């Protein structure tokens, strides 16, 4: 036999021998674990100690026993937990038809769910109902349907109480009462049918346009009774009635789009999958900057303008009073709330495709003017000696401006002059004078303008402006270096040609 053939045969024998040792070792370890009460499915087949190509002696077993038993125990615990979760899901699925049936019964005229759909997140609260919790804790495979029939009356009462607690809580918010206030005399004498009918009436009243709710965490407006219970695990103590902020706003918006304020208003705010998101344009904004917003965003848009105008008006009166007491000329500035929804005229519109295309082209052309006005590019004298010895001038860099007609701290965010002119025209009712009415924004000098989303945006905007300036600096430096290198290269070529 040639040496090469012998080497190939020996390598094959080593592989077979190694596989044989591993198989015998796994079988021996499995037998040990079986004697200890573990199931074959929990065998840690891929554990490094199990897969060694060595015979299992008693000494070796004692050395690896604790590690192998721990691996088997971990697999057993995971398998048991998975089986428990599977059985829990089976029991939950068995309870779903009962849940949907009692929800439909308790929701009266507002029932919108079928027996095939799980209704909202309140199902988790339904699982805490004592008889249901006992069935869930039984750890059985499923729940027989005949077991649920005796529970139906109690389950219906539980869901009615859920709905009552939620709707009465919303009504208490509107009435200025404690959230958990319930007048038991109002309900004690009512039958289930009468209670459901009364809850329908409360839901209809709450869903009226003036009774929308403001949710500060999401900065949006919602109509919480629009579903059968519609609590969606929302903390009611976080809500406040929109009516206190915007009397008549939501009603007017709904009137514009032809929605009856006594019907389910949530249809105009839904962004659920399967429904088209309708966008409306604010008519009170200049067409060149008018945003397209959802119904909820439009409400928020007008609310933010209202809050800003109220605070800015207070600051204006304070500054006017202070200036009247000084020897300096009296400071005065017109403030006009162009987003007052009580004024005559449309406040929003649903544009067709042709109108949207025209607005889009108008806004694209307007955006192209950003930073092109001479007042949008500012230079200055460098304080660093020797940077540019010929002129010692800073290159022109893009910058933003703020409105000097607004009270200090209430100017809109720093912007280019083209957009700031629109602000001055709409809010201060005059044509902008660049020198008198605007100023270059300097974060180290100016009060950061009030911003409903906080000051981080302003800081980021300032950093963005600084980065633009640095880009100009770097580009000019690169051109100088490149020009110097080219000049040196030309000198070297001419020198070589001369020699």
Write the layout of secondary structure elements.
Layout: H1 3-35, H2 58-106, H3 123-126, H4 130-137, H5 145-148, H6 152-175, H7 184-187, H8 192-206, E1 213-215, E2 220-222, E3 240-241, H9 249-256, E4 280-282, E5 292-293, H10 295-324, E6 348-349, H11 353-367, E7 377-378, E8 397-398, E9 401-403, H12 417-427, H13 434-437, E10 438-440, H14 456-498
Helix pairs in contact: 2-6, 6-8
Explain how this protein is built:
The strands form four sheets. A three-stranded antiparallel sheet has the order 2-1-3. A hairpin with a 4-residue loop joins strand 1 and strand 2. It is mostly helical. 21% of the residues are buried. About 12% of the residues have low confidence. The chain has 14 helices and ten strands. Helix 2 packs across helix 6 and helix 6 runs parallel beside helix 8.
Key structural traits:
499 residues, mainly alpha
Q: Give start-end ranges of low-pLDDT stretches.
A: 112-120, 226-231, 262-274, 381-389, 450-470
> What fraction strand?
5-15%
Helix content: 40-55%
Large-scale geometry = flat
Order of helices and strands: HHHHHHHHEEEHEEHEHEEEHHEH
Q: Overall mean pLDDT score?
A: 76
């Amino acid at each position: 036999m040639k040496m090469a053939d012998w080497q190939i045969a020996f390598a094959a024998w080593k592989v077979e021998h190694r596989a044989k040792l591993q198989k015998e070792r796994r079988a021996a370890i499995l037998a040990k674990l079986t004697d200890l009460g573990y199931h074959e499915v929990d065998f840690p087949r891929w554990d490094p100690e199990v897969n060694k190509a060595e015979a299992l002696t008693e000494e070796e077993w004692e050395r690896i026993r604790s590690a192998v038993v721990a691996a088997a125990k971990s697999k057993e615990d995971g398998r048991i937990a998975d089986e428990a979760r599977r059985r829990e899901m089976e029991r939950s699925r068995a309870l779903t038809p009962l849940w949907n049936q009692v929800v439909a019964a308790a929701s009266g005229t507002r029932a919108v769910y079928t027996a095939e759909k799980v209704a909202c997140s309140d199902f988790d609260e339904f699982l805490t109902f004592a008889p249901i919790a006992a069935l869930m804790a039984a750890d059985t495979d499923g729940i027989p349907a005949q077991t649920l029939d005796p529970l139906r009356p109690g389950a219906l009462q539980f869901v009615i109480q859920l709905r009552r607690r939620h709707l009465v809580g919303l009504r208490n918010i509107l009435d200025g009462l404690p959230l958990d206030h319930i007048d038991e005399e109002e309900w004690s004498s009512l039958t289930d049918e009468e209670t459901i009918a009364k809850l329908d009436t409360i839901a209809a009243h709450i869903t009226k346009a003036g009774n929308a709710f403001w949710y500060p965490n999401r900065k949006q407006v919602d109509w919480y009774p629009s579903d059968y219970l519609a609590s969606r695990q929302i903390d009611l103590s976080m809500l406040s009635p929109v009516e206190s902020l915007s009397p008549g706003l939501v009603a007017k918006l709904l009137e514009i789009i032809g929605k009856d304020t006594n019907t389910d208003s949530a249809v105009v705010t839904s962004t659920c999958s399967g429904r088209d998101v309708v966008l409306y344009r604010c008519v009170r904004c200049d067409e060149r900057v008018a945003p397209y917003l959802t119904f909820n965003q439009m409400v928020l848009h007008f609310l933010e303008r209202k809050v800003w105008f109220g605070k800015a008006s207070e600051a204006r009166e304070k500054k006017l009073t202070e200036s009247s007491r000084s020897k300096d000329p009296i400071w005065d500035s017109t403030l006009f709330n162009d987003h007052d929804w009580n004024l005559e005229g449309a406040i929003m519109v649903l544009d067709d495709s042709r109108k949207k295309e025209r607005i889009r082209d108008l806004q694209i052309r307007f955006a192209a003017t950003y930073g092109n006005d001479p007042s949008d590019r500012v230079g200055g004298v460098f304080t660093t000696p020797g940077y540019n010895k010929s002129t010692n001038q800073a290159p022109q860099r893009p910058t933003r401006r703020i409105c000097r007609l607004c009270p200090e701290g209430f100017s809109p965010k720093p912007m280019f002059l083209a957009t700031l002119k629109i602000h001055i025209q709409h809010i201060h009712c005059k044509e902008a004078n660049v020198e008198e009415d605007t100023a270059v924004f300097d974060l180290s000098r100016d009060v950061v303008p009030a911003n409903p989303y906080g000051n981080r945006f302003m800081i980021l905007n300032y950093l963005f402006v600084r980065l633009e300036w640095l880009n100009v600096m770097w580009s000019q430096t690169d051109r100088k270096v490149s020009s110097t290198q080219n000049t040196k290269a030309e000198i070297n070529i001419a020198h070589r040609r001369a020699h």
